[in-house]
Protein 1
Amino acid sequence: ILSDARILSENHLTELHKDSFEGLLSLQHLDLSCNKIQAIERRTFEALPFLKSLNLRCNLISEVSFGTFQAWHGFQFLNELILNHNPLTTVEDSHLFKLPALKYLDMGATQVSLTTIENTILMSLELEKL
């Protein structure tokens, strides 16, 4: 399947698995907003090397587990990540802080600690808007 965008908002999805996006190699924009996602398996987004924007707002994500943003390609193009309006308290994946192209990160209306926000600012090389 060749497509550069998938809008999967409001589909009552509860979890994402590492094979959820197999075969969508050219996908650049993924909107998973307003679902009921609680769990994201390690390396779920690895099948998406050209991903530019990922919208996970308005879900039930309480933590970004280790390996969520770990991939062989290093997410060279991901420049927008939206995590707002989640009960997010913990970011255990250090790869999130090292996304090389990330310019826009929205963690508004979450319970993320000030320390996590500080780490994001210090480690994110290209971040323009938090």
Protein 2
Amino acid sequence: MEYSLCVFVLLTTLSSVSPGQFPTPQIIKDWVDHIQKDLIALTDKASGLQDLIQIYDKHKTHFSVESNNARKLVATAAGNIEKLLAKRSEALKVRSPPAFAML
């Protein structure tokens, strides 16, 4: 539900309460439930959750759930990054002439 529509529904509900009377706990609970449903719907739409669910359902045969060792994954990633940086550093050393040769 659009934001403006939510506000309209809330204002119409509020206008049904007489000015001298505070809303009953049940009316307040109904408002909260309605607002909560609207927020969930808006969040799902904005996040693309339904699209992700459809993509997963379409391709679920390609996915698997496996346990892993977080420390090992981090160590592997760190090692890969160090190797990459070392290769780039070496490549820069090979490509650039010594500083004194430029004088």
